[in-house]
TrEMBL record:
Keyword tags: DNA-binding, Transcription, Transcription regulation
Species this chain originates from: Sphingomonas naasensis
SUPFAM superfamilies from the UniProt entry: GntR ligand-binding domain-like, Winged helix' DNA-binding domain
The protein's name in its UniProt record: FadR family transcriptional regulator
GO molecular function, one term: DNA binding
Residues of the HTH gntR-type domain: 24-91
């Protein structure tokens, strides 16, 4: 069984290995290691290990530890108080639009309720984005959607590549909407689709005809049809997570 990074390294050799795993930039490596541990719920009693403990476990300097903790605090994951240490914040305080936080959630063990909320968020944004793309998306945006749709069709039987293409399709629709606020949600929407793919819930051939239907509606400027087609796709795609509430 693989040792959690939050377990005491115990020896100089294991501390050296932990340091090597951080990569060339020790600060960013420590941010990544601690962020993954926090999101995975590996920190005992809702606290980060103390600065001396982190120095010893990862064989890094105090300045590296402090800078890493400061960066985690900026993402809302921890709050540090003098003589009290660094407390893990509830996920409601995290910057859930931060690309790194989203990566840690996707690649770790995302809580079922968090996944449900992520899918519901996508449901609230993507149909409207499809309608906007049909109304105001320029030729470049439509071309990106068509290209992603073509890649989906070309990846028959190649699920990892097809998943990449479907995620590119959803991102292209968001981009073509032209709404700067929707653009800010792109990483979160990507995360919802990546989690489904990671758990095998997106690998359903019956979903594939929906992509060209959405692309055609956007291309001809049929906003309400684009909205309906995207809604239908997402209801079916997210059904394993949202159940009957996806259609609500």
């Amino acid at each position: 069984m693989q040792r959690s990074i939050m377990e005491d390294a115990g020896t100089a050799l294991s501390a050296s290995s932990a340091r090597s795993a951080l990569g060339h930039n020790l600060t960013l490596g420590l941010v990544d290691a601690l962020g993954r541990a926090i999101v995975a719920g590996e920190c005992a009693n809702g606290m980060l290990p103390t600065e001396p403990e982190l120095e010893r476990r990862f064989a890094v300097s105090r300045s590296v530890v402090r800078e890493a903790v400061k960066m985690l605090a900026a993402k809302g994951l921890v709050v540090t108080r003098p003589r009290q240490g660094s407390r893990i914040e509830p996920c409601t305080a995290w910057d859930l639009f931060d690309p790194l936080v989203l990566d840690w959630m996707v690649e770790g063990s995302i809580a079922p309720e968090m996944l449900r909320q992520l899918c519901a968020f996508s449901m609230s944004i993507e149909p409207a984005a499809a309608a906007l793309a049909a109304q105001s998306g320029g030729a470049g945006g439509h071309a990106a959607i068509a290209a992603a749709c073509h890649r989906i069709a070309q990846r028959q039987g190649q699920w990892p590549l097809r998943i990449d293409a479907t995620i590119a399709f959803h991102r292209a629709v968001i981009s073509a909407s032209g709404n700067v606020f929707y653009l800010r949600t792109g990483d979160a929407i990507d995360a919802a689709h990546r989690v489904l793919a990671r758990h095998g819930m997106a690998e359903r051939p019956a979903l594939l005809p929906h992509y060209p239907a959405i692309a055609r509606a956007i291309e001809v400027g049929a906003a309400e049809r684009a909205r309906r087609e995207m809604t239908t796709l997402l209801v079916r795609l997210f059904e394993p997570v949202l159940g009957g509430t996806a259609a609500a």
